[in-house]
Each structure stands twice: as C-alpha cells, then as structure tokens.
Amino acid sequence: MIEGPYFVLTVVGVLGTGLVAGVFCAFSTFVMKGLAALPPAQGVAAMQAINVTALMPAFMLVFIGSAVLCAVIAVVTFVLWPDEGTVELLVGSALYLFGCFGVTIAANVPRNNRLAEMDAGTPEAIAYWPTYVSEWSMWNHIRTVAAAAGAVLYVLALA
Predict the structure, then answer these.
(1) Which residues cross the membrane (predicted)?
(2) With a threshold of 0.85, does the pTM exceed it?
C-alpha cells in the first residue's frame, strides 16, 4: 500500500491527469463539433481565441503541473520501487507524459500555431479549417484517452 507523501503525490496525480482528461474530453465530444458547425471563418476565429485563452495560468498550471508531477511520480517510483503499484505508476506516468503532454507538443501545438498565423476570413484559413478540425481532433482523442488511462492507472496503484 502506498503511504505518506507518496500517497499524496499519487492522489494529486489522479486529480491532475483526470482534470486534463476532462478538459480534452469536452473538446473531443462537443467543443470541436460545435466549432466545426460554425461557418469556417467563425470557427477559425473562435478556435484562435480559445487557443490564446488556454495559455492562461489556470489551465497551464494543471496541464504542465500534471506533467511535472507525473515525472516526479515516475522518479520516486524508480527510487522506492514499491511492492505494489509499480507498473501502474510507471505506465500511468508514461501515458500522461508521452500520450498526453508529448502529443500536445508534437501534434496539437503546431496545428494551433499554424492556425494562429492565419486571418480568420481569408481563403487560406477557410480552406485549412476542415483539415485542422479533423487532424487536431484525432490527436486530441489520443491525448484524452492517454490522460484518462493515466488517471485510472494511478487509482489502481492506490487500490
């Protein structure tokens, strides 16, 4: 059984990875569908505004803080190598770090940056919008599942 500060780290890890999974799940299940239903220029403008707002401290603290916490949990797990929950903690950390945080950096952020360079009503932005929605959403589904699976594995490590 995980105890003491290690227990607290893991519970906070469940909370962080679960919160991020929830945000990304909202985008996968209804936000992107709603934006895609708008005329392209409006969808582009709305997503550009969302991407700027997402960089504010509230979300970044949870998103980046969870990545740091997952790294700490992985290191502590390697050092302590507990009798129970080791596999769950290491795989849960890897899922969030690579499948959620890494995918965000490698796949979603470059698409966001490309969209940010466009003026919403231009033919270029309007032509790119369906591709953006499709590709961005696919990668978002992956990071949603990775963050949720990380949270589940952390819970299993506590059981």
Answers:
(1) 6-31, 52-81, 87-109
(2) yes
Extract the tokens encoding 157: 């490590």
